[in-house]
Amino acid sequence: MNLLGITVVLVLLAGVWAQINVLRPQCDSAEAEEAALVAQDYLNAQHAHGYKYALNRIEDIKILSKPDGDTYVLEVDLLETDCHVLDPTPIANCTVRPKILTAVEGDCDVVLKKVGGALTVTAFKCKTEESTEDLCLGCATLLPLNDTTALDLVHASLATFNNMTVNVTYTVLEVGRMSSQVVSGGPIYSAEYVVVEANCTDGGCVPLNDAMALRGICYAKGVTAVHSVDCKMFSTLMPVVDVNSTAAAAPALPPVVHAHTSSLSHKHGLKHHKLTAIHDPQLSGLLSAESTESAEVVPVAPAVVPVAPAVVDVVVDVAADPAAADPAPVAADPAPAADSVSASDASSSAEVPVVVVKREIAAAPASAVVDTPATQTDPIALVPVCPGRVRFF
Q1: pLDDT at 379 over 50
Q2: In this predicted structure, what is the pLDDT of residue 35?
Q3: What Cα–Cα distance (Å) separates residue 316 from each residue in 111, 219, 249, 330?
Q4: Kindly report the CA angle at 42 between 21 and 198, in degrees rounded to 5?
Q5: Contact between residue 93 and residue 62 where contact means Cβ atoms under 8 Å apart
Q6: Tell me: the pLDDT tens digits for 363-378?
Q7: What is the spatial distance between Cα 170 and Cα 368, in angstroms, rounded to a whole number?
Q8: How far apart (Å, rounded) are the C-alpha atoms in residues 359 and 369?
Q9: Which domains does the chain have, with CATH numbers?
Q10: pTM for the predicted model, two decimal places
């Protein structure tokens, strides 16, 4: 490419960037909260298996402001709740699983578009992992969703439940999670699984692919021969029969998406259901990537926050050298140290234009310089930007 061509390309790029501003609102601001909740609800709507996830923390937010609308780039942490995706309970009323019960965490990068005041998710990328923190010796541990012994408990407990129901037979729609705990008498198993109303004949039971089919979640504990089971319908989260012993009515729900009637789960070897991993990879250049543990690739345009003059402070340990408290003998090197230049370059895209400068004190020993950022008098620097507050743990 000749010099003229290069010049034309640079001029065009400069024209594009001149129309883009990168805003960095606080992660706990109302604007960030609104975008994060839209992302949370959208991710749950795409999650066809397992449990709903609740927002735990906003890690980062950037807003790319352009004439045709704003693009929000979010990094959010989510935690698994005890509400299944088919459960109509609002996510605000769902309970996040504590760490001791093996919490499952979702790290997601989400791109949203705001046009006319409405936010719409255009792309996302998620990584889902189980938390192994705060697990005690002897606590229950998650089992793979295809563990045969635990699945035997699922089928045995479902048979027990079907024997207690009247005029309705259920089959397994999905196994949510299974765990085991070693006690004095041997291992005790626990299982959570979703059931759906079925049409049963001599050839077996077929799930009703009907939005009005009853669906619920069952909790079983014990072993195949001796166990307990408790099932509640998603319609009211109450037992399958009401006080008048009539079948409970169910609201319109999505049709059956997948039924696990065999001895194996479709999630071979996994211990939990993962969030949908990625959507619209064409926009992957805007997806950072805590979800993929890669470097930030969002292009940085000139920030709209005006850059104030840097405040350079000389910090002296007065306790170590009382004479250093007198500013008169202090002679600061007028030329900035090499590390101060690199620190300024590295913070060119930071939320607040803070420049940290270290200077040598001629009249004081080297130990008198505190290796901490200089005090910033600008009140904006005192306001934490990101990450935001932790809602659960």
Answers
A1: no
A2: 97
A3: 45, 63, 74, 10
A4: 170
A5: no
A6: 433 333 333 344 444 4
A7: 75
A8: 8
A9: 3-136+275-286 (3.10.450.10), 145-233 (3.10.450.10), 309-377 (no CATH)
A10: 0.66
